[in-house]
Amino acid sequence: MLRLNRFYCELEIIVRILIYGLNYTPELTGIGKYTGELATWLSERGDDIRIVSAPPYYPAWQIGQGFSNWWKYHQESDRLSVYRCPLWVPHKPSGLKRILHLLSFAITSFPVVLWQGLTWKPDLVLLIAPAIACSLGATITANLSGAKSWIHIQDFEVDAAFEMGILANNSLKKIILNGEKWIIQQFELVSTIAAPMQKRLLDKGINHDRLILFPNWVDTESIFPTDSSMRNELGIASEQIVVLYSGNMGKKQGLETVVEAAKNIRNPKVLFILCGDGSSRLELELMAQGLENIRFLPLQPLENLNNLLNLADIHLLPQRADVADLVMPSKLGGILACGGAVIATAHAQTEVANVVNDAGGIVCVPQDVEQLVEKIELLAQNFSDRQTMKIAARNYALKNLSKHQILKNMHEQLLNLCK
Questions:
Q1: Overall average pLDDT of the 159-183 stretch
Q2: CATH assignment of 230-400, given 1.25.40.10, 3.40.50.2000, 3.40.630.30, 3.40.50.150?
């Protein structure tokens, strides 16, 4: 099945991998970023990679500038090709709209994935979820082409939708969750990014032998502690304490708590900066009207990410309590890699709380404004504590989140599956 090339007198295994997922670079946050970095790493290693994805739309929920919402082919390099498929993008996503949004991509992308499977003959079909609606197309393609199948779950969008009340029909919940379980069982390998998410898969009846842990990573060479030029660019006084949230502004993050904290903070030197985009941004801006200690910035380009992260004296990692072990915030890796003093909102013993504690950060109860204000004010007035936390965060990232090591381990699993 695998192609063997003689290279410098060594036997090199070249794998054809069809990566199928909703989100892909140049999306700057979340799953698209990781899928893009994975595809690039694999192609630079020597594998042949083809991507079937949508045009970039996240987190702004609108098609990215310079992209059309139509079928399009693009070759990024000799070993990396991208096929974009159209989808419906609701301006204000809700439960039903999200379902239609996912289904639209599953429908438009299915013939492209199937065509690639039948004509290109991949060794592996790798589905990146959330894209459960695409699972049937992925397994059909794998079966007809003789490829192996792997689903990598970045978050449980179905569980989160029900637990957050985005979907609320109990009869529908049982049908959808049983269907999701059956679909996942069709894949030969199932991976996810955190141990509690693995446990949820076991609870769903997925065989332990099929499960592997494939955590998100961070490029510690491009994200590192440094002085940021953004303080001067934004006109922020040297004595001000910058409290930064950067990333998607959606329902999962519970950013209303951050705005309420800005309303209740007593330290006049604290400045909150919320950087990013998403379905809740307009609502948050309306909540923050009249507050002089909070600013909103647009999503920053990738080349400015390290500069942005190093702007913060304190990083915030808020999320709602009801999604604590359904998602693992991708932004945490960048915060730790830049040596960020982080305050996270998470219940004890959740994966987020465990990682933040191990990395020297602070954890407080989700959606508890009073406690969040207390933690921010204590840290804002204690420079030495922040420095100690920053050193611990960077050390944790270097030891546990290395991009090269995580992807190398993943590739070994990939080769074992395809043998």
A1: 69
A2: 3.40.50.2000
